[in-house]
Amino acid sequence: MKKTFVTLLALAFTAGNACSAFAAGPTGLARGLNGNSAVSYISEKGQIIPPFAQVLFCAQNPAECRDNNGLAVITLTDKEMLQLRNVNSSVNRTMVGRNDPRNELNGDVWRVNVRSGDCEDFALTKRSRLIAMGWSSRALRIATAFTPSGEGHAVLVVRTDMGDLVLDNRQSSIKNWHDTDLRWDKIQSGTDPYVWYRL
Questions:
Q1: Distance (Å, rounded) from C-alpha 151 to C-alpha 163?
Q2: pTM greater than 0.85 (yes/no)
Q3: Residue-by-residue DSSP string for 6-46
Q4: Between 52-60 and 2-15, two packed helices, what is the crossing angle to 10 degrees?
Q5: How do residues 86-134 score in pLDDT, each as one tens digit?
Q6: What SS3 class is residue 166?
Q7: C-alpha distances in angstroms, 8 versus 54, 94, 105, 146?
Q8: How far apart are CA 183 and CA 87, in angstroms?
Q9: Has residue 31 got a pLDDT over 60?
Q10: What is the DSSP string of 96-111?
């Protein structure tokens, strides 16, 4: 296990940062899903090296990276949808967007349950709060992407029977993955935090 971790750490470091810091704040109010969206899921295209900062995050926060053996797809009842909306808007409203300092691991440090941070810190905090509420870790995956301006970005993707839903710190509305303005890059495996897939 130690040898595997060291190998992944070395590979991830040489691959560089998966997402540059992006600390844009939320806009808009929590709204429902776009009613016209068809159910669809992100399709993985093959394994890829995980982001270096994520490998370090899991080494420093092993409890945040454990598989809790839950369901891979959440049945989205009114209760679950309300929880998603509340967590998304609460984290977006209370966390302050702040880019990582450039002198910290080339400006890419992943943190959870902090008062301020950038995109992946928002996503990790939302994931942590949902797991604390009893949600399956297998249905809560971090994904990296690019915004329309080309900036690296990270979001929480929630796999539900209504498709893959995106919780983004740039807005409080929850959208199906194909209804966002993001150009997708890679996504974390639901069962193994050290396995990532190209999108």
A1: 25
A2: no
A3: HHHHHHHHHH--SS----PPPBS------TTPPP------S
A4: 140
A5: 999 999 999 998 886 666 556 689 999 999 999 999 999 999 999 999 9
A6: strand
A7: 11, 34, 16, 24
A8: 24
A9: no
A10: EE-PPPTTSGGG----
